[in-house]
Amino acid sequence: MRHIRPLDEAVANQYCTNLVVNSRYTIQNFLFKNLYEQFRRPLNFYFLLVAMLQFIAVIAPVNPLSTLLPLLFAFTLTAVKEGYDDVKRHWQDHTYNHTHRMVLDAKNSAWVSHINAEIRVGDVLLLRENEEVPCDVIVLGATSAVYIRTDNLDGEIDLKSKEMVQWSTIDPGSHSRRTYSVCEIPSQTEPPPALSIVAAVSDLCLVCPPPSSIIDFFEGRADLPPKPQGTVSDAGTAAVQVPLTHHHLLPQSCVLKNVAQAVCVAVYTGDDTKCGMNKGEAPVKWAQIDKDVSRYSVYIFVCQILNAVIFGFIGFQANRSAHETAWYLPLPANEASASALIYPLRFFLLTTVMIPVSFKFVVDVCKYYMASAVEWDVAMMHATATTAAWQLPESSACIGCKARNSNILEDLGQIDYVLSDKTGTLTQNMMELDSVTICPGHHLSVSNISGTWTTLPEELKKHNPTTLAAVQQFAQMVALCNTVEVVHPHASAGESASVSEIAYHAASPDEVALCLGMRKLGVSLVYRDEYRVVLRMHRGQDGSHYDCGVQVAAKDGEEEGERTWAVHHIFHFSSEKKTMGIVVEESDSGRIWFVVKGADDRVMAMASPAPSSSIASVHSTSSPLHPECAAKLSLYAHRGLRTLLVACRELTRDELTVFLRNVAEAGCLVEGRQAHLDSLRAQMESGVTIIGITAIEDKLQDNVQETIGDMLVAGIKVWMLTGDKMETAEQIGLSCGLYRASDMIIRIGERASEVANTSNWRQNLFAFPIEQLPQSSAAAALVSEPAAQMCGNALEARVLCFDASDSSQLSNEPLRLMAHTAGGIADGTASSTGGGIFVSGAAERSAVLVMEGGTVLDTILRDPRLRARFCELSSRCRSVICARTTPSQKAALTKLVREGGYLTLSVGDGGNDVAMLQEAHVGVGISGKEGQQAARAADFSITQFSDLRTLLFVHGQQAYIRTAYVIKYSFYKSMLISFIQLAYNAIGTHMSGGTFWDSFSLTMWNGFYTLPQTILYCLDRCAPRVVLERNPYLYKMTRHAVDICPSNFFGSFVFRGVLQSIGLLWLSTRLYGPDFAYADCGGTASNDVTFSVAYTALMLSQLYTMWWESHAVTPLNLLVLVGMPLFYVYSTMMYSDNPTLQYFGVFRKLLDTTGVLSALGISIALVVPSIIYFTVLAFLQPNPRDVLRRAEDRRQRLLLKRRDYKRMQPCWVRWFGATPEESSIFCRRGDTAPHMYSEGDLMA
């Protein structure tokens, strides 16, 4: 434990300074540390090993620079990027560390200016409004209540109240409360007298726990001397111990608000602060496609090793005695003793290009662009207010998607499961109190009551006085049991503020909705601080109000029905406990109440069977909840409303005294404090009486049902994880389209067993006839490609006959039906039965699984048999709904699905969803009313749930397809230039390990000549975005990895590269073989001429290949495809004109008619077979994406025949005949930015 005495030099020397260092490198260690981090990756270390072996002359077939230069280029770019990022971090550190603060100098008794880095533990600081807190501090005194803004820490811009070190005493006679603080600040502008502050803190001791990264954890104590000084001299002579919690701690980087000056003491500095303890690398996530490529690279590496061993052995055997028969070819002395090792190493170095050194760099560049395109997409931009809830709206801004992890962009195209929070994610998180039920059965529809703020609503006046008194007593309890802040400072007990002007601010929208709803019931919260709450009771037209059923006239000079309550203790809400409680005392009557509200299962568990009649007239019953109220509770849940039970119990003065004494004693503990407080809370919560129910409506967001429907069509399973009760969650699931009314509902939980009149939910789980459900979708991948091909055949006749009038109104429903039918045809089991879903070609009745969280879910997760059964059952269900789940259970369920081998996406909007977002393969946070914690911790952040359609179906598919092709093409072109080396040794070098290419050509191949067009493939679009948006079933193709499956990767690209390299060698050597002679001089062609013809043909063939296999060509692609041959000719001529090189004059010999025609003919011969093969394949098995792309292209061309439509297009569309691409169908007028860049304007 830390014992901190302010202004004590000995204490300060025990702990670190406040120097903040977020940078990773220094000038001294940058080079070494960055190289270590890069070469720590296996692939980079492999390239380094290859480069080092190239410097051994006896085994190096080419110049070492051919490998070293591309390697240095890639590593240098990475190092420059890392260095630039670190320079920015250095600048941020310097700015923060040199910010000046007012610090108390104890020796000179004066306020002096120190920079942040010089602040030490125990220093006394003077902070002013809008200043950033330099370290973790405790407030000793302030001019007013202390508020902070924590957007720098957790992204939330709403104000949070904080407490200062103060204590209170209650006069035994008058029961009046007196409050004391350590320091007094008399002026709003002038610093407090230094001498008085030094005297006030001289004997203060703060006992603090060790540094912790948990933001909401701080269990400390402030010890004051027996004879307080200054402002507390009259507080008595006994020593004072003030419990300190996280509500007293102001974390580093927060901003002080709504307080002129505050005197604080530093308790944690530097890396010991909450912010410093939470610094660290985010969880590293890699896309599934990267893992696949790594596995494929291992296969190619194994193949490379086998080739090296086999060819090396053959070369060693063929050449070991060659010098004996060919005396003019003596064996070099440096090869005589190690020939058996030299030959395999030579062939290993010859084929190192099989794994391209540049492909990782190319993929990273493409990912960076595609992540930027996600952020530029106007379809995901929505106007959002930029101010906090406590401010008046001043402006709005268009906030779009933020991609914080571009490494996993391709995973967006392969999602199998979406696990979603409900409140604020599927719903708007705009709460409105719909109804209340007050025991024993008084029901009020609050939403239908007109908002009257000064008189009692007419809807309530029709009730009898007893009922009206019960309503107002219930409303008082609800208005008291919250942590709402009244944001207008003039609305105090001493001033008559207009109720209509009062606004509320709270961490949870539920509490604001409850306070606004209580206004309609005649009770308004007008003032609240740490120790006092003021409620205003609405009067009738005659100026009277109701108290316990009696109409009471207002007294002269009395404020309008105003009541003051003293707050003794608050039990704050937590996601685990699901309740919030408060101990209050009415000042006039002296009656003491404990009020609690929370989830119905928790409150009913703590309620006593025998109700109290002090709040409302309740009939005796053995159940904690009156039957009429229980029926209303079930009705609210079936309507999808969020329900809370409100309960209370009256305390005696002795009970309060004992409780407060126990709380004070537990609060002074610095170890085991929370356990003691939890025990006291459990004692207080036992035996309460339920007095009513609140039902809050939270409407669904726009387009939620359509979004979930598209996900289900795409084969994505959607799970909803919520803290609501099962009935509410089930109704919300039906409303948002997770299941249909005709679907089978499977319920697992304690209450479900009670409804089914069974004793054990475990028996139900194992006894359920699982064979009634469709088979698991795990086998869908086996039939996905045939299903896609059949889908293409079924669609071709429909889409290709569209005309401009009806194709623009393309409906999703017929295409969805075709997609399902195609899946069934592919497997031969299609059915026309309506109301079913097709999984692996079977049509059976679909089902939804509704699971209860809490102990039931914990039991399932702990028991292997139950877990296995749950996984099997959930995999056969259309959707899964998990109710009453805690944040840890959400993360556990995400991990469970992830461990099943499925790609998961979690989406949430609150801090309680962070663990779930980090556990999933892809975490998507929604910037909502619960702050920015989820958005900041997620890999991607959006503003609406419906944006997932664009994120998955457009950017996810496109990113996956583009990256897949870039990877396949990178290995293909590397195989072209590497395998020819082996073939050349077999026919031309007597297996000696010689090279066909020269070093310059090898260096330029992957480094320059093929690099630009490979990178610019990231501009390609497999289909217009409207096609991807209208046809979500196309997503199944990327989900099942048909674009980079082993057969496609090795068969269509790697094997094609091998065949083309062999064909290239055969054609070039046949044309420029021993029988070839130049017409002008009769000379034969050297090997350099042969390889130059082959290399030129290879260059031309790659231009044809890239043009043919691109789906869309932009002007930038066209510029590179046309300009690269010109650059190749120019650079090679410059290299060939150097008289000091062996290659001198070779390329100019190629520029005659024979050379040009030979290169052109060979290039055509290389690509024609593959073009024929892929054309026939597309004719026999059309790809749905290609079919729909051609249909959209034809529609656009038909529309271009209209003059009015053509005049609206850009000049390159009108002049060059390019095909425009239609904007997103998800864009809505007024919902997106007026003009922003959108990826891709052309499709040719």
Automatic annotation (TrEMBL):
Family under the similarity heading: Belongs to the cation transport ATPase (P-type) (TC 3.A.3) family. Type IV subfamily.
PANTHER family reported in the protein's UniProt record: PHOSPHOLIPID-TRANSPORTING ATPASE (PTHR24092:SF19), PROBABLE PHOSPHOLIPID-TRANSPORTING ATPASE (PTHR24092)
Listed GO biological process terms: phospholipid translocation
Name of this protein: Phospholipid-transporting ATPase
A Gene Ontology cellular-component term: plasma membrane
Cellular location(s): Endomembrane system; Membrane
Domain P-type ATPase A: start-end pairs: 106-162
All copies of domain P-type ATPase C-terminal, residue ranges: 935-1182
Annotated positions binding ATP: 421-423, 511, 573, 597, 642, 722-724, 884, 890, 912-913
Single annotated GO MF: magnesium ion binding
Domain P-type ATPase N-terminal: 12-67
Catalysis: reaction(s): ATP + H2O + phospholipidSide 1 = ADP + phosphate + phospholipidSide 2
Catalytic site: 421 (4-aspartylphosphate intermediate)
Membrane topology: Multi-pass membrane protein
Keyword Magnesium: yes
Keyword tags: ATP-binding, Magnesium, Membrane, Metal-binding, Nucleotide-binding, Translocase, Transmembrane, Transmembrane helix
Annotated positions binding Mg(2+): 421, 423, 909, 913
EC number per UniProt: 7.6.2.1
Membrane-crossing segments per the record: 43-62, 1115-1136, 1156-1180
Enzyme class name: translocase
